[in-house]
Each structure stands twice: as C-alpha cells, then as structure tokens.
UniProtKB/TrEMBL annotation:
Keywords: Signal. Residues 1-21 form the signal peptide. This is Amino acid ABC transporter substrate-binding protein. The lineage of its organism: Bacteria, Pseudomonadati, Pseudomonadota, Alphaproteobacteria, Rhodospirillales.
C-alpha cells in the first residue's frame, strides 16, 4: 500500500515538473533590412528588428528555446542542409528550395496566414512630374530612381530601364526626391507610409500597384520537421497568430 502511494506521488511530481524547452536553431541573413532586420554582419543587436522580435515571441509561446545566428544566405542554406541549423528565419518560398526545406503549407502552397513578414515595395514620385507606373511599364523618367532594400529590388528597377541610385534611409531618399535630385523612389511601403506624413512631404505620392510584394516564411530542414513536426507546426501557427499585433506595436519604434 505504501509502495503504491509512493509511486503515485512520484508520478504526480513528475507531471508537475516543467517540460524541457526544445531547441530551435534558426539563422537569418547578415544584412540590414529595417524595420524587419536590423544591422549588418554577424552581431545580433539588442533591438534586432520586428521580424526577430516576432520570432522570439512565437518561440516563447510554444515553449521553444530560440537560438539565432546571422550569416550570408548561401552559407546558411548549407548549414541547414548539414544539420547545423534547424531552419531559416525569413526566406522566400520557391519550388527548388523544397528539396531541402519544409515550408508551412496549405493545399500544397505556402500558407499566407503563417508567413513571418510581407514586404511590399512601391514607387513614390513628386506630384509635379510625369512619372507613371501601370504594373508593367515605367514611363516619364527624366532622371534616376533612388532605391532601398535588397539587391533584387535594384535589379527589378534596372530591368525597367531606369538608372538607379542606392540609398540606405528613407529620409535620404525622400530628401533627394524633394530636391529634384531623383525622379522617383522605390522603398518599403511600411517605412514610407509612416515617414512621409512626419516629414511633411505633401508633394510626394505613392504609385499603384506595388512594384514587388513578397511573403517570407520560416522553413525548417526536412530532418528537423520529421523529428519535430508538432513543434514546427505550432511555431508557424504562433507566428501567424502574433504577427499583425506585433508588427502594429513595434514597427513605429523601428522606423524613426
């Protein structure tokens, strides 16, 4: 009788112990893409960016111990393939990447409800010039276009026949536009739509449709998914559940 009671007490005590947190090793690119990712190089700053803070909150919600590393994307993909990283924090979906990675899917396609970030880039111009964009053709340019964001955005603008000027900040780009040094700007909507009213540039307007709209996900390796399927699915769901409120709360503090 005493043995049975002792076993029962041990069982209850075991249940009362907190579960051991699972490790989730995610890497992300070592390039500044504010407000989503902050800073260049391998260091992770104290204020790492909205996307990183979202991932931290999602990991805490599902009881995962998040380990973050920054490195160039080609090396990161190799690290995931080799099993030294579990996944990539913020990556575009492409069919060829599914050979090594598992993305959050719905009906065989990337699940738009479980992306970690949506980046929309648009053209902005002065109201007094004739620059026009119909989603296919860019017309009316007399001067260069200031471009922020990844090299892929610059490549896309160049493909439209524009001369580009690289710029790191929205303040600089819109200052160049207001001073007639460039004819248009291409940058993140999230940044521009908050910055323009603060800067008072009423002579600048956004053109529709966006030049590029991209959704980014947190794919994991096939080996990690096979061993931790429930954790991966819960983490992806937590990203979707927390994303909009987290971005609304944190984005303004990262833009100015």
């Amino acid at each position: 009788m005493r043995i049975a009671r002792l076993l029962a007490l041990c069982f209850v005590a075991a249940l009362a112990q907190p579960a051991v947190a699972a490790d989730l090793r995610l890497g992300y690119i070592d390039q500044d893409l504010r407000p989503f990712l902050i800073g260049d190089g391998p260091e992770i700053p104290a204020r790492p960016g909205v996307t990183i803070e979202l991932a931290q909150r999602a990991a805490a919600k599902v009881g995962a111990r998040l380990q973050l590393t920054r490195m160039p994307l080609p090396r990161l993909i190799e690290e995931v393939r080799a099993g030294r990283q579990d996944g990539v924090l913020s990556l575009r979906y492409s069919a060829d990447r599914t050979a090594d990675l598992v993305f959050p899917l719905r009906a065989g396609r990337p699940d738009p409800d479980r992306h970690v970030a949506r980046l929309s880039y648009s053209f902005y111009k002065r109201r007094d010039n004739s620059v026009a964009w119909d989603g296919t053709r860019l017309t009316g340019l007399q001067g260069p276009v200031a471009v922020g964001g990844s090299p892929l955005i610059s490549k896309r603008v160049k493909s439209l026949g524009a001369q580009i000027v690289r710029s790191d900040t929205g303040t600089q780009m819109f200052g160049m536009l207001a001073m007639y040094r460039v004819d248009a700007v291409v940058t993140l909507d999230a940044m521009a739509d908050r910055l323009l009213p603060v800067q008072g540039y009423s002579q600048i307007e956004k053109l529709s449709p966006p030049l590029v709209v991209e959704e980014f996900y947190v794919p994991v390796s096939k080996a990690f998914y096979a061993a931790n399927r429930e954790l991966a699915e819960r983490f992806w769901q937590a990203l979707g559940d927390l994303r909009d409120a987290t971005y609304a709360e944190l984005t303004p503090s990262y833009l100015f």
